[in-house]
Structure formats: structure tokens, C-alpha cells
Task: structure prediction
Amino acid sequence: MDMFDELYKYQPIATKIVQNAYRQKRVAHAFAISGAEETQLHLFANWFMAVFSCENNDDGFPCGECVHCKQILKDEYIGTYIIEPDGATIKKEQIVDMQKQFTTYGLTQGARFYVINQAHTMTISAANSLLKFLEEPTSNVYALLVTKSPDMMPITIQSRVQQLQLNIMGRELIIKKLVNDGHSERLATIAYELGYEELNEEAAAQLASLTEAALIYLGNIDVAQINPLVAQMDLEAQVKNKSQADNFFTILLILLNDILDVKSGKKETTLFGIDDIEKKNTIKTIAEKMDTIITAQKYLHANVSSNLALSLISLRWNAQKEGE
Ligand SMILES: [Zn+2]
Result:
């Protein structure tokens, strides 16, 4: 699916508002874009710029293919100036630098944009500088204030910009979108739970291999009846660092939760094809397993090494088995 098609599908209202303004040539000079997840906000800001810069714009629909569209999608468009927080905040100097660029720079014929990401992190003096700039709009220059928390911007700024409130995508839509992008439902579910809104090839491959390792680990213990301490030895080769261990633990929790959904009658079979593990466990043994994982994850966050945290799970699960 074309990246912009995704927006027409998931953000039908906000895209129409912009297209209508474009067609009537009555476009505001400053917008606050908010309401959705980070990647969706970013895509929308890019789409907005493409509407005004595309070489083959078809009545408010940018082509996504021309030089300008491509540069915009890569965040490399010459007519765009991007401001991000410097540390925790956006500082006055950053706004002043941007203003200088916009008053001296006149190489581009077409529309120019400044995008302020995480606009709610502007300091008061940054906001005051911006306010002066907003009060003297230049034709063909557009301000895009991108923020998850528009209410945290000063009221004076809020009242100067047009709000474009996007739809929050939420679990179901993001998983659907990831599946549309060509990932399996299993991988899409794992990715969503780990906080991904989109997956590049490298991340997809890594999550797939961690998921495989988690499935084997669970299967070894409950179906193949391999001692958890032995099963762990295989694991250490695949879970190489802390962030992988953290993801591995969360994936184990997702798998166990899949089993709980079957046990509690929410669905008939597991999404991850682990019905044999489901049958070997009771709600109590699953709860104990989850409890151990959560403890191990806490240790990991408290700077215990990933191997030690993995050992904790193996040791406790072994003790649980012996206690059965
Ligand atoms: Zn284009």
C-alpha cells in the first residue's frame, strides 16, 4: 500500500480538511498536528508538505513518487526546516536560528515549511519568539507543530494555530497496518506489544528470531520436558544483550498471555500455535511463570546481567517443576 493511502484510510477527516483548504486556497499558516501515535504524526506532517510541493499533485493528492515527494518522505526536502528538542526542551536559540533561515533564504520557488517536533517541549522564551514569528506570516511558509500533547503548549500558541486532530490508531489498527505491510499476524502482535508502530527488515528479523527462541524455550520445558537449566544454555547464544533479553522476556509474557486467553475461554486456539503447551499448564502454573518473568525483568532493569536474569527464570521454573 502507498504510504499516503494509509493516511486516507486511517485519517480521513484530517486529510480532507487539508485538501479542502488547499483546493479553496484558504490555508492557515500554522498547524498543530496531534492525537495519534508518533509515526502517524510524522507521516501526516510529511504528507502535508507533499500536498504543497508535489510536482504531480492531483487535486490535493500528492503522487509520492516525484523528486519532491521522495525527498520529503526521506526527511531531506530542501524547503523544510526541522526542529527537535535539544536535550529535554526546544530552546529560544533554535527558534531564532530557524527564523534567520526563513528571512534570508529564498532559493526555493515553492512552499517552505518548518516542522517543530515535540512542540510542547518549547521553553517559554522559545514559545514567545515563535509567537512573534507566527504573528507576521510570510506567504507560502507553513509552520507544523507536531506534538502528542497540544494542551501543554502555551495558550497563546494554541490560539494562533489551526488544530489538526488525528485519530489514535490503537492496538487493532496498528496490528492491521503491520499485517498490511507484509508481516505475519504473530510478528505484528509481538511488534505492537513491544512498542513498534512500524518494522524495518532488521527489526523484523530480530523479533522473529527472538520469538522463535521463546517458543522453543517454552516448548522445551513443557512439552519436550527438557530441564530448564539445559534449555537456558541454548538460549544464551541467541539472547545476546540487555535489550534483547528485555524483549525476550516481554515476548515470553505475550506467549503466556496467549495461553491464558485460551484457558479463560476468550478464544479457542492460541495465536502462536502453542496449544500443546497450553494443555500442559494450569492457570496457576502460567501465573507463576509470568510472575517469575516479571521479577527477572525488574532485575534486568536494575542492572543485573541478561544471563543472570535468564538464569533466574530457569532456576525458578525448574523449582516449580520439581514441586509439581
Ligand atoms: Zn509528488
Remarks:
- The CA atoms of residues 42 and 100 lie 24 Å apart.
- The beta strands are 30-34, 80-83, 112-117, 141-146, 162-165.
- The mean pLDDT is 92.
